[in-house]
């Protein structure tokens, strides 16, 4: 899917004055095998919150953003999960909102996830937004998706 999307953006860029690019994260959850499959085109990785263990950022390779000249190959990673695991997908606009530092935003978000384990997903979304909310306006797009996996 990412390869085809990449080719599409490359084709668009051949016809425009100002080339575009986009980051993308694709996740597939298989509840039968309890496997998360992920592939990234320049996008930040998902965050995983296993039951009874600290939240973490899984280590997986990343391809270039869609539309950036390359071979268009995107690594795919697989990870097992336990029932009750929470999966957090977000844009860098959320994590870099306060200090424009992705690493600090990841640490802040992981700490929030670890300290709010009993919150339902709707409340957790609000808590994550509050933990990363800048004093003024958001500087970038902010998207957040939470899932409880079984």
What is the fold named in CATH at topology level?
Phosphatase 2c, domain 1
Largest sheet geometry:
3 strands, antiparallel
By CATH, the superfamily comes out as: PPM-type phosphatase domain
The outline comes out as globular
- Overall strand count: 6
Order of helices and strands: HEEEEEHHHE
Q: With helices defined by DSSP (H or I, 4 residues minimum), what is the helix count? A: 4
Helix content: 25-40%
Instruction: State Rg.
Output: 17 Å
Mean of all residue-level pLDDT scores:
95
CATH architecture: 4-Layer Sandwich
CATH C-level: Alpha Beta
Q: Which residues sit in consecutive blocks of at least 5 with pLDDT less than 50? A: none
Global structural class: alpha+beta
Give the end-to-end Cα distance, rounded to a whole number of Å: 25 Å
Strand percentage lies at 15-25%
Tally the structural domains. 1
Strands of the widest sheet, in order across it, are: 1-2-4
Description:
The protein is an alpha+beta fold and 150 residues long. It has helices at 2-13, 92-95, 102-115, 121-132, and strands at 24-30, 35-41, 47-49, 76-80, 86-90, 144-148. It contains 4 helices and 6 strands. Strand 1 and strand 2 form a beta hairpin. The protein is globular and about 50 Å long.
Secondary structure blueprint with pairings:
Elements lengths: L1 H12 L10 E7 L4 E7 L5 E3 L26 E5 L5 E5 L1 H4 L6 H14 L5 H12 L11 E5 L2
Antiparallel strand pairs: 1-2, 2-4, 3-5, 5-6
Helix pairs in contact: 3-4
